[in-house]
């Protein structure tokens, strides 16, 4: 009996000790340069779905390490930025120490975290799958070789499927993690909706009540609101002439809401076809509103003139409208009926021509 009492007391003591322990993420910061004066650490807020400043450290002295700790609740994304302009985004998957050497660059050393660099993986896949195709497209467009452009489009569509599968496999290998959550931001919620739902299931099994899982669930639900048959949410923006326009201004007509950019080759291939279709569609009320995410207004204007785009154009440089619809890739479009309901998504000019002919 005494032995049982002692064991019980030991168990209770152990439980009490564990409850007092704090599980933390500790940033060990060591500046190796006198140029480094301030360090700003940001943390991704899954609720707000954006980076939020967590700590700004101003009294930095070279070769005098600093420790900054925060309670670890779930896998998280952090950003470290120096006053020199150098910065790094980090996925912290579990509690532990994050060692950062700060000099001409930022060097990460940690078993609990890794640098977020999925964009490099995409660049590598681009080189693997599309090597030479971009140059071929540019040459064909410059020479206005429509036959060659059509051949390249078919090839591109075939290779794109393999490219997306390769991207998805990279994320599957990451498993439910902060790194995978970040990588999903490079996918289109509409074009890759099935993959998002596949990954959400895995996140909910591993982290059922986490901010990551709730955020993914919220994004998928919002994307589902823009399913075929749904009314597209209104937007307000200034057009090329400086006039304020609403999506609801186009009610009563079939309208293509077309997202594009001057640097998007598939968009530029489609533009002349859309222009021809726009001019020749007479049997129904049909309009187009173009929304470009160009950063350079001159490039945007030049593309509009060169491609013969005569419909309403919006320059969405800060991507306000683009992000409103949770878009992440180009080209992207929505075809709406006169009541503003979505009847097609990501439709090519060729298929749009057929669909418009069927509408009376």
UniProtKB/TrEMBL annotation:
<feature type="coiled-coil region">
    <location>
        <begin position="142"/>
        <end position="169"/>
    </location>
</feature>
<keyword id="KW-0175">Coiled coil</keyword>
<dbReference type="GO" id="GO:0016209">
    <property type="term" value="F:antioxidant activity"/>
</dbReference>
<protein>
    <submittedName>
        <fullName>Peroxiredoxin</fullName>
    </submittedName>
</protein>
<keyword id="KW-1015">Disulfide bond</keyword>
<keyword id="KW-0732">Signal</keyword>
<feature type="signal peptide">
    <location>
        <begin position="1"/>
        <end position="22"/>
    </location>
</feature>
<dbReference type="GO" id="GO:0030313">
    <property type="term" value="C:cell envelope"/>
</dbReference>
<dbReference type="InterPro" id="IPR013766">
    <property type="entry name" value="Thioredoxin_domain"/>
</dbReference>
<dbReference type="InterPro" id="IPR036249">
    <property type="entry name" value="Thioredoxin-like_sf"/>
</dbReference>
<keyword id="KW-0201">Cytochrome c-type biogenesis</keyword>
<keyword id="KW-0676">Redox-active center</keyword>
<feature type="domain" description="Thioredoxin">
    <location>
        <begin position="226"/>
        <end position="360"/>
    </location>
</feature>
<dbReference type="Pfam" id="PF00578">
    <property type="entry name" value="AhpC-TSA"/>
</dbReference>
<dbReference type="GO" id="GO:0017004">
    <property type="term" value="P:cytochrome complex assembly"/>
</dbReference>
<dbReference type="InterPro" id="IPR050553">
    <property type="entry name" value="Thioredoxin_ResA/DsbE_sf"/>
</dbReference>
<dbReference type="GO" id="GO:0016491">
    <property type="term" value="F:oxidoreductase activity"/>
</dbReference>
<dbReference type="InterPro" id="IPR000866">
    <property type="entry name" value="AhpC/TSA"/>
</dbReference>
